[in-house]
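Holo prediction. Input below; ligand is adenosine-5'-triphosphate.
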Amino acid sequence: MLENNIEKVLILDFGSQYAQLIARRVRENHVYSEIVSHLITAEQIKKIKPKGIILSGGPASVYSKNAPGCDEEIMKLGVPVLGICYGMQLGCMMLGSKVSPSAAREYGRTLCAISGENRFLKTLPQEITVWMSHGDIVTELPAEFESLAHTKNCPYTAVKHKNRDFYGVQFHPEVTHTPNGSQIIRNFLYEICHCSGNWKMDSFIEKSVNDINRQVGNGRVVCGLSGGVDSAVTAALIHKAIGNRLSCIFVDNGLLRNFEAEEVVKTFKENFSADLHVVRAQDRFLGKLKGVSDPEKKRKIIGHEFIKVFKNEAQKISDVQFLAQGTLYPDVIESIPAHGGPTVTIKSHHNVGGLPEELGFELVEPLRFLFKDEVRKIGEELGLPKELVGRHPFPGPGLAIRIIGEISGQRLEVLRKADKIVIEEICKAGLYNKIAQCFAVLLPLSTVGVMGDERSYENVIAVRAVETTDFMTADWYRIPNETLGSISHRIINEVKGVNRVVYDISTKPPSTIEWE
Ligand SMILES: Nc1ncnc2c1ncn2[C@@H]1O[C@H](COP(=O)(O)OP(=O)(O)OP(=O)(O)O)[C@@H](O)[C@H]1O
Ligand SMILES: O=c1[nH]c(=O)c2[nH+]cn([C@@H]3O[C@H](COP(=O)(O)O)[C@@H](O)[C@H]3O)c2[nH]1
Ligand SMILES: NC(=O)CC[C@H](N)C(=O)O
Ligand SMILES: [Mg+2]
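Structure of the complex:
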């Protein structure tokens, strides 16, 4: 916990996927913030003397048995409280409102109309776009409340209590897909909590280098290097801290794209002076994945196998105690319950939830609390080349989570060819840097086609392209029709085994970016 003289805002975590994003938005607005368990008591909060309290979203329904709650005395501390989604529903319920399942659930982009004037929604236009992710709504609002906004399906989208400093929003102001979100957070901090905004983030690189030195001492580190931006930045930070006591290990797990291994080695040699071990482990990974179709099982097998390979390879280097990975906050929050709280597992990212219990290494993960766009900024500051910093993410489990169900050599080949075409066409259309992530997914279900007067009965390729900065929420990218046309035309003509191409037009939430 911080000392008392720093202005801070507490975020009570009810299991939100976005708790760190709320913290980040508050910190970006120059107010320190800290995430705490929803079980914190009003007495404990009194000692911390926060300027404001934010109740996060969460997966539960406030009216269900065992739903996480909070100390009701918090509402009487005289400290302004902002409830977001679940947090709004909980706050409203504690103050006498009724919350029920909504007839029409809202996920993704929604239009919201703002009524009247108030400090909380100051400077916003009358109609704003907000990002929703909820199935419950406040259905009855007592007279002590004022309604500040509504959407087509949600009569109380923003509310304010008349006698207490309680505000609630049903949407998520913390995500970038709510364009006025940061302004709403800023209004809460400055108009409602009267913060002075005197907090600044330390220079991350300097702090991180010091932290790595403190953690590693005179020890040796191996770093899992994938060719992606996260592990590249991790390796560069660690190299800056401990020099040649760092060795990098790149694993070809047989789940990579066309020519990926060659390209990763080339880029590394051109940009890093650290030592690189390339491990060809295709057979090990594909052997273990044989016959496995459950996504969570695939992820765990891959996570475990990565560690075994790292261990084997580390034995060839003397005395390695530490394993570095380019883990980011979204990997952490989607994989494991945070703060021992009520967060649910969405998917086990191979480098977090997919790790074995007995690791045999101490982890060094300097980027564990950051988001992708922050990591890219650090990469630029460290002087890494633009192409590397701007590269679309590629998950550690690779093509294994882009083939729905069981993996086989033949399916991998089909997907590699289709994926190559998608990327080529996107580059040709000048869209690569506009899209956050773009790839092909193989759906091994057969549909009927007609090719050259013959009946075909073959697989489907889905094209996924998303727009996002932090990968916590995402919208589908509107690829122009001509480009979609040439992608489809080329895949069906050039890739044997595919007779249909579909385009994924789902947002995250409720979908995720990867299909498994
Ligand atoms: N093929 C690989 N060989 C070695 N380590 C890997 C490999 N794939 C993933 N990792 C490790 O797992 C971590 C998480 O993977 P992830 O894909 O999230 O990050 P990244 O590959 O570094 O960046 P990006 O998200 O841009 O692809 C990596 O940072 C790296 O430490
Ligand atoms: O290294 C990784 N190991 C994993 O197990 C993993 N699963 C998802 N991802 C990447 O994370 C981002 C968010 O993806 P989802 O919306 O599918 O959760 C996207 O960028 C995904 O590509 C992974 N990266
Ligand atoms: N994102 C949230 O906080 C969701 C709250 C609640 N589970 C609902 O569906 O309405
Ligand atoms: Mg990657």
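The mean pLDDT is 93. That is the main takeaway for now.
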